[in-house]
Structure formats: structure tokens, C-alpha cells
Amino acid sequence: MSDLYFGINMQKLLRLGALDPAQLPETSAQQADKLSSEEHLFCRLWSSDMMRSHIFNKGTLLMAQGQPIQEAMVIFQGQAIATCGDTQFHLGPGAVIGLAEGLSGQTSKWRVTSDSVVHTRSIPIAQALTEIQQTHPALRSLCQVTLARILGQGTHTERVS
Amino acid sequence: MNSPQFPSRHYAAGDVLFNRGDSADTFYVIQSGEVDLFVPPANTFLVRLSPGESFGEQAILSGGVRSAKAVAVSDLVCTEITALALQETVMKQTTLIRPVLEALLMQLSLQNAVRSVLPELFESR
What we know:
The structure holds 2 protein chains of 2 kinds.
Chain A: E1 5-6, H1 10-16, H2 24-27, H3 37-47, E2 52-56, E3 61-63, E4 71-77, E5 80-84, E6 87-91, E7 96-97, H4 99-103, E8 111-114, E9 118-124, H5 125-134, H6 137-151
Parallel strand pairs in A: 1-6
Antiparallel strand pairs in A: 2-9, 3-8, 4-7, 4-9, 5-6, 5-8
Chain B: E1 8-11, E2 16-18, E3 26-32, E4 35-39, E5 44-49, E6 54-55, H1 57-62, E7 69-72, E8 76-82, H2 83-91, H3 97-117
Antiparallel strand pairs in B: 1-8, 2-7, 3-6, 3-8, 4-5, 4-7
């Protein structure tokens, strides 16, 4: 088992009070130079009430490799193990699982299981596709370029066009 | 894409458009030329971008700092869109599109980090 870990430093965010919704607007500018892009994004996702929460016990299969993806998920608390062939690594808060693959109609590249109690929030792929198709053209372009960057230059992004 | 709000700028081959840690305020769309992106911790080559492609979107949406380095491969012309205009558009969204976009950018960040230390996972793509 690899000891590689990919996730947000929650202790830093808690120490800065960045996860306190009441402080977000006030401290956003002050924290602009203290937080990385990923930490900013995570704080915004943390404060969003548009995704459904789920709690999983340790050992639960969160995403099956090679299966169609109906719901993507974002880890908010706890750790999971991602497996791809012989390679394993840990995913922590901030890890997004299956969103780009689901939006483009691909299957999951990784098998992901919970390695502790894990709190996630889910994004229904069908609803996300509908909203992307109906949103502002600039945001749709941003979705397309980000999808292509995640999945590779040759990725077909017709589903989000 | 050319307009007073979205000016074009010329760069010479080898110019660094931004470094990791720089304050991020601009989204770039390549008109001509090419750009290479490099990611930490080993300054690993990530991707070469061509005309019509864009970059810099991650940092400007979150208002933070750059997580990658961008270098002009050849003489380069980019349309530059400021963070303010894009952020205003994103922040106005009141539906699932906002977390979808933010989560996509998070997934890109995660994937860049994984790719930086486990490039073999992506070789077959």
C-alpha cells in the first residue's frame, strides 16, 4: 500500500476559520494570499447547499472501476483508497471522484473504497449535464476546457456542448 | 473574443506567463502560438496547449494563486480575460452549475497532483 495522499489540509482551513460559513465573506479577501486555489474551491464547495450529503462506513465501495457513473462525489471528511491496477493511494477531503468521467460518458478509471468513515456530497450526472447545457456560454466553455484537461486532449465533450 | 474588455497580448518564445504561487487574475485563450504548463512539486511537464485552447481558469475562479507554471513555447498571442468578469458570471449562478464547475476544477487539481507523482497511471490515455 502506497502512503501517497492527495487531499486538502483541513487543519490549516480550520485554523484559519475558513470553513466557518459565517466568516467566509468577511475573510475571503484577507485569505486570498493565504489559501491556494484548491483550498478556496474547497471552502466554496463546503458552504454549498446544492449537493446531497452521504456518510459511508469504512470499507464501503464508493466507485467501481469500469462501471457507468450516475453520481459523482466529493470527499469532505475522512479518507478513501483509490486503486488502479497495482497502484494504490489515499484520497482525502477535496478529492472529486468520477465527475469528469460521468459528464463525458466514460467509466471510472479507479476503484475507490472508504478507508474510514467518509462524508461525501454527490452530484447527479444527469442533472449536471442539463445545467451545463443551459448555462452561460462562457461557463460552458470553461466546463469543456476543464473536462478536456482532465480526460485528455482527444476527449469528446459533445455531452456538455 | 477580441473586445476592449478582453484585450490581446503578445509574448515572445520563452516568456513565462506566470509561475506557481503568482497571484492569479487572468484567464488566457490562445489565438496563435503554443504554451507549456508545468506542475509542482517536480516542475513536471503537464501539457502543451495550442490555438483555441485556454488556461488559467482554475486560479481566477477561486481568486487564489497559480498552481502551475506557464511558458510560451513560441511567439504567442493570447486573449486575456480578467478574473473579475468571469468571477461575476460564476458567482451569479444559483443552481447546481456552480458546484459542478468548482468540483470540476477540484478534480483537475487532484488529477494534476496525481499525474505529477504517478505519471504511469495516465500513460495509456
